[in-house]
Each structure stands twice: as structure tokens, then as C-alpha cells.
Amino acid sequence: GDALLSLLNEFTVNSEAEGGLKQQTPAFTSYMRDRLIEGYEQSLEANDAYNRKNYEKAVELYQDAIENGRKPALILQEIRDARGNESGSEMQQYGYPAGL
Q1: Is the dihedral of CA 13, 31, 7, 46 positive or negative?
Q2: If you count Cβ atoms within 10 Å of the first and of the last residue's Cβ in the chain, which end, N or C, has fewer?
Q3: Residues 66, 43: Cα–Cα separation, whole Å
Q4: How many CB atoms lie within 10 A of CB 45?
Q5: CA atoms in the 13 A half-sphere facing the CB of 44
Q6: In the prediction, which pLDDT does 37 show?
Q7: Is the pLDDT of residue 84 over 70?
């Protein structure tokens, strides 16, 4: 959780401040960061339940994880897409598979 939180805090977007000055602002509100982390942690719990063959609990936890993490994950993808367009070669440099 803490490692993920520190990575999320690094994501910023350009915004315009008063007077037309450009500034970097956090890409995630604390609420969205918490939702993404909660969804990630629920997915880990779901994996554990699945491995224990508690399929009903696993399905419930997977559904909760998807519900909590979906919107923040989409925001992350938008940031990643925008940064890929800025750097041009980031996908090639880091070897992201096509479509990720």
C-alpha cells in the first residue's frame, strides 16, 4: 500500500493557475488514491480467497475491487496515454505491450 501510494503521489498533470501560469497539480484526489489502493488490496484478498477455494467470497471481493479501482485505473491510463504522446518513445523505452 505505501509503495503504491508514493508512486501515485508522483503523478501530476499540468494545470493553469491564476494569471495564466502553468503549474503541476496532483492527478489524483486523496479520495481517488484511496479507492485505487482499496481496490488493489481487495484484489489481493480475492486472490487469497480463490486460492483457498472460497470461490463465493473471491467473487464478492473481485467485484468490490473492480468497483473501487475502475475509475482511478482509467485516470491512470489517461495520464499514461498523455505522457506517451509527450515522450513519444516511452512505450518503446520501457517495453509496454501494445494496448496497455
Answers
A1: negative
A2: C
A3: 8
A4: 16
A5: 6
A6: 85
A7: no
Distance CA 28, CA 44 (A): 22
Instruction: Check residue 32 and give its pLDDT.
Output: 82
Asked if 10 contacts 24 with a C-beta cutoff of 8 angstroms, the reply is no
- Please state, as a whole number, how many other Cβ atoms lie within 10 Å of the Cβ of residue 17: 9
Task: Give the whole-angstrom CA distance, residue 75 versus residue 32.
Answer: 9
Is 14 a residue whose pLDDT tops 80?
A: no
3-class SS letters over the chain: CHHHHHHHHHCEEEEECHHHCEEEEECCCHHHHHHHHHHHHHHHHHHHHHHCCCHHHHHHHHHHHHHHHHHHHHHHHHHHHHHHHHHCCHHHHHCCCCCC
pLDDT score of 47: 97
Express each pLDDT in 20-66 by its tens digit.
667 677 777 778 888 888 998 999 999 999 999 999 999 999 999 99
The region, left, alpha or beta by phi > 0 then psi within -120 to 50, assigned to residue 26 is beta
